[in-house]
Amino acid sequence: MPHAADRYDVVIIGAGPVGLLSSLCFSKWGYKIKHIDNRPLPTKTGRADGIQPRSLEILRNLGIKRKLMAHDPARVYDVAFWDPLPEGKGIHRTGNWPSCPSFIDTRYPFTTLLHQGLIERAFIDEIAKHDTTIERPWTIVGFKNDGKDSTYPVEVTLKDLNTNVEVVVRTKYLFGGEGAKSFIREQLGIQIFHKDPISHVWGVMDGVVQTDFPDILTKCTIHSDSGSIMVIPRENNMVRLYVQISSSTDPDWNPRKTATVSEVQEAAKRIFRPYSLKWDRVEWYSVYPIGQGIADKYTLDHRVFIGGDSCHTHSPKAGQGMNTAFHDALNFAWKIHLVEGGFAKPSILTTYESERKLIAETLLNFDAKYAALFSSRQPSAAEVGAASNNDDGSANTTNQFVEMFKSACEFTSGYGVVYQPNIFNWGPDHPAKSPLFNPQGVKLIPGRVFPSCTVTRLSDAYKVPLEQEVPANGSFRIHIFAGNPDKTREAINDFALNLEKKRSFYSSYQKEDSTNFSYFERHNPHSRFFTLSVVYSGKKGASTIDQLPSVLRAYKHHIYVDDIPDIRVPNAKAAAHMKLGFDTENGGVVVLRPDGHIACTVQLVRGSGTVDALNEYFAAFATKPLGDGNSQARL
Ligand SMILES: Cc1cc2nc3c(=O)[nH]c(=O)nc-3n(C[C@H](O)[C@H](O)[C@H](O)COP(=O)(O)OP(=O)(O)OC[C@H]3O[C@@H](n4cnc5c(N)ncnc54)[C@H](O)[C@@H]3O)c2cc1C
User: Fold this and answer.
1) Would 240 disulfide with which of 30, 232, 294, 623, CB 3.0-4.6 Å?
2) 388 plus 347 within the same structural domain
3) Sequence-distant contacts of 402-406: CB under 8 A, at least 24 apart
4) CB of 179 closer than 6 A to ligand 1?
């Protein structure tokens, strides 16, 4: 029987993107982690490389964006299309489109290109700061949820590949992030379904070239009489070339078909004609067989879970593998945190599979369509212009191509990750029935990502991105858009008063000594599960900080004024209020999940109504009864 030292909150197998991001969250949030990988060294170079705009937001929130940007990665703003000229005269540019068009509301309208080795290293360094070490080369040889210990029900047998010594540990949860050939998935007998039966073998080459091809610093798809290639600019003057070596639709299909470096280089030279292409050096080359597949289940018992490539594989064309792995990991981590922190019932863990599997299915469908979009029909310049620049899409609704283009861009950027109504994403079927939910005029849709808003932080007058002000701390973020303080003073006071009531969602989960928090505590003075902020609509807010009730004054670094213009709401007096649809006088409240997706919006009213509604919302999954049981808020 393992002794206490061999008991962990989570054992993580695999230190690719999904394992690393989950490990970082758990380590930051104070959990005891055992994290192993079977390779002696982390990825040195190559493999996945495209960080999509929404993923960059997540990485910033986790505190590692600066480390990545220090490598001066390439940024892809535009995609160019090259097609054959008649009579074998080579290729010419036939169109281009923005990689992240202006209708997508992001601070990062580009894909960041950096090889997986550098990305993994940034995670590993940050994880080490929180006292978790990734042990290598170790593998998993067995596991069982035998329930012999009700707190640590899963027994895991691990093997040190240097010494062949096996150790047995117990854990609350086991997370399989071992990539496409997942041992855990196989042991659980979870089937992989192949949506698109067609498989491909890709040759991927990173290196430095000299060329007169004018778009070498742009992402390009090139179709030529000699074959097709995808070009992706990279850090350190490098370029990545993806060449499809074979496909299961080929008459002589052989999944083990391969190509040497020089064969791919020669193929690339032929495709680039009439432009020259000379290789200075090759940094990485891999032949990468891939089929579209999705795991039937992401868990069987809500103790052993899988994520990332263990659950879904697809072509590298849209650059989604690593990004989807990031989203899986974050979704998994905050839900385990809510349960293990004692806030939420274990039944919420079902939403990991229901939310993430639906996104993976959408991704696979999209991957197939995206491939067709790239190869079957090139857009006209007018269509691309219309799709890129039109924010509301109203003029284009009949144009199928434009609609496809928009949803494709939104999806690949990561802002198209929209979770359906469930216990976390409020909708009319949610158990919380207060009439104050979803106030009229508010444009925020539960399940979507909270948009970017720039506001002024009152404590130091910095202009700050509101969506980044709370780091990834595993807490719900409650933004109180407080409108005009002269109008909302009473509502804010009532909000605070009701928060402090014994059975409120907030008081029920306070830290043991919540009155005695550190002077330097910015985000979680009272509770591990909530960070509050107040955003006034006008400058007057500045004078009201001292008059805020003490529960809100504890968040002195999270009091803001909404006085920064936003191009999306020209001439707005309070741009963030207007953009989100909150009344600039009377405000409103938005609750964000710990991953930054919108949970619910509630009207800000005098009396107990707003907190009553939130009590109802949280009571749907909290471990304690909340509120006074009188769920019908008065309008
Ligand atoms: C050779 C290769 C080339 C790729 N090239 C591209 C590309 O060009 N573009 C692109 O978009 N995507 C590419 N991918 C896919 C991309 O890397 C993945 O989508 C992404 O890394 C998914 O992250 P993950 O954490 O789920 O899995 P992975 O990154 O695969 O990480 C899994 C980790 O688990 C470890 N592991 C596996 N089994 C065990 C075990 N039994 N015990 C302990 N550890 C284990 C592995 O060593 C690895 O470190 C490539 C993948 C591979 C394998």
Assistant:
1) 232
2) no
3) 404/369, 404/373, 405/97, 405/373, 405/379, 406/101, 406/103
4) yes
DSSP string, 17-52: HHHHHHHHHHHHTT--EEEE-SSSS---S-S--EE-
Question: What is the model's pLDDT at position 370?
Answer: 66
3 state DSSP class of 360: helix
- Asked, for residue 624, whether it belongs to a domain, the answer is no
With a 6 Å cutoff on the Cβ, whether 15 touches ligand 1 is yes
The phi and psi torsions of 121 (rounded to 5 degrees) equal -60, -40
pLDDT of residue 404: 66
Is position 437 within any domain? no
pLDDT in tens, 262-314: 988 998 999 999 999 999 999 999 887 777 899 999 999 999 999 999 999 98
* 585 domain-assigned: yes
Q: Residues with Cβ < 8 Å from 478, sequence gap 6 or more?
A: 530, 531, 532, 533, 589, 590, 591, 592, 614
Question: Is 401 in the same domain as 489?
Answer: no
Q: 0.85 cut: is pTM over it?
A: yes
The protein residue with its alpha carbon nearest to ligand 1, atom 51, reads 47
Q: Is the CB of 308 under 6 A from ligand 1?
A: yes
| Pair 140, 49 in one domain | yes
DSSP state of 452: P
Task: Ligand 1 pocket test: pick from 38, 183, 332 the residue with the most ligand atoms within 8 Å of its Cβ.
Answer: 38
Does residue 284 have its Cβ closer than 6 Å to ligand 1? no
376 and 486 together in one domain: no
pLDDT of residue 635: 35
Amino acid at 611: V
Tokens of 600: 């619910």
Is the CB–ligand 1 distance for residue 114 below 6 Å?
no
Alpha carbon distance 574, 570 (integer Å): 10
Based on the fold, state whether residues 321 and 385 are members of the same structural domain: no
| CB environment 270-296: b (16+ within 10 A), e (fewer) | ebbbebebebeebbbbebeebbbbbbe
Contact 613, 432 (CB under 8 A): yes
**351 and 392 share one domain:** no
The pLDDT tens digits for 397-414 are 445 555 666 678 888 899
Indicate whether residue 48 lines ligand 1 (CB < 6 A): yes
504/606 same-domain check: yes
Residue 156 domain-assigned (yes or no): yes
Q: Which residues contact 372 (CB under 8 A, 6 or more apart)?
A: none
Q: What 3-state class would DSSP assign to 115? A: coil
Q: CA 405 to CA 588: how far, in whole Å?
A: 34
Query: Cα–Cα distance between 570 and 548 in angstroms, integer?
Result: 31
- Least Cα distance to 289 among 259, 318, 322, 323 occurs for 259
Is there a single domain that holds both residue 385 and residue 472?
A: no
pLDDT band at 377 (very low <50, low <70, confident <90, very high): very low
Structure tokens at 491: 């509502």
